[in-house]
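Illustration: Reverse transcriptase domain-containing protein.
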Amino acid sequence: METNIAMLEQSLQEDNTPANRTNLNKAKAEYVHHLKIQEAILRQKARVRWLKDGDANSAYFHRVIKNRRRRLSINKIMDENQQWVEGNDKVAEAGVRYFKGIFSQTPEFNDYSNLEAINIMITEENNVSLIEIPSEEEIKSNLMSMDPNSVPGPDGFTAMFFQSCWDLVAYDITNAFYAFFCGANLPKWLNHTCIAMIPKVNSPQSFSDMRPISLCNVISKKSSKVLNSRLSKILPSLISNNQSGFIKGRSIIENVLLAQEIIQDIDKLNFNGNVVLKLDMAKAYDRRLQEILRTDDGALSTYEKVSGQMVNKQKSSVSISPKEHYQAITKIKEITGIVHKSFPIKYLGCPLYVGRKTTNLFSDMMGKILNKIGGWHTKILSVGGRAVLIKHVLLSMPIYFLAVMQPPIGVMNQIERMLNKFFWGGTYEVKKHHWASWEKMCYPYEEGGVAFRRIHDICAAFTVKQWWNLRARESLWGDFILAKYCQRIHPVKKKWYSGNSQSWNAMCKVKVTVDKHIIWKIGRGEVSMWYDNWSGIGALWTFLAEGRIPRNDNLSEILLNGH
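Result:
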């Protein structure tokens, strides 16, 4: 195609006619069209989701594809007999034996007697809504909400095909859904899946170090998505506040914040001492029933019998205050069989610590950023491409961590130096001149910057969001914070003291600034008369004297008392 364009350009130079110009323009348009198709194919193979502008760089895509294939390929594995197996066929046979041994085991008898204490939560109306035959509009809306570039199943079709060709396939897909909800037997190939093994550790040695992912056909995934969208409407009434998953609007971050608040007081004196028991449940693909012993502890044993789950003792841990006697650790280990770990311990991907925050808590986060930068080569990326990578990849990597913990200033500066060095094309071996500081590059485009974000600003935004969540919505974490720090005083007036947690300290620094922008809508009158901005002009305590009205009264109490 490039040779054809060169020949047409030569013909146009020799004979500049409208016909030759038209032929050249058509050839160039066709060439650009094929380049876009090639880029889309490579982008899909590379699983690059962040790229919207920047490098249309096939060399970069090829490098990403090559690295992904090398990381996900299994050259050798240790089988159930602790013997190394090599070769694609033998590795596949070992994988089949491993998972067949897990999923074909006869489940142990579970004691369901305690479940009688749980009330029936599903109503007849809920049942009707779950089994109701979906309309064509419901089927279409769920299909259109799927990721068009998700990994295809065994049939090779992605969701983009069905989304683009909906007018052609709507009749067949709708009838298939009607048959499924009416109880008809669908073809077996619809449920065929490709199993992908995702490493859970850096150097996996056995199948227990990998997580199986089922790559289903789009029709099968769409059926599950319709059921999931229906279940999501009734799950909030079924799942308690201490479970953050599965419910829209709940945040797993609050679970980490709550755990850190509890551990913050582990050094306080207690009659029997304070113990933190971190339990990890063994997943179905992660265990063999005969290889894991049930715990002897009464409470844990009862839970295992009722739920059918088992405690993964290799990932569970017991932690106590450094002030406690070591005999307590020995006794707990004898009862539960769970090993002792000192603080900090990992919980939901974040460290839980006692005392002051140190730079060591953030070493894993900075190491991941360095490894990601080391996997890219600045020679195949333009300045625009590096800017896109910083915005959409590098600055997104620590987001979850920063939402829970605000790093020390030194850690923030070190992360920004790494990003700045990558932007200007430097490495640890090669130094490049930085033509602008990171602070100036964080200015908006209109002010001459590149619109990067400062780590301090990201942390400040998360602190503001935490205060908003504490004030505006109910949660287990919010109830705990209010009970711990604000029992007899409104949270706006509560001050921070040296014994309080770092997260509460951060919220106290921004609460006055944030709270004046929160306007409360009057409903049952449960807002504070003095400290909540229900009038729209600000909280009354900021510009009115107290007078005869008690400061802790709600608006409804003031009105009922005739003030």
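Reading the tokens back as a structure: The chain has five domains: 2-72, 122-237, 252-282+306-352, 359-453, 519-563.
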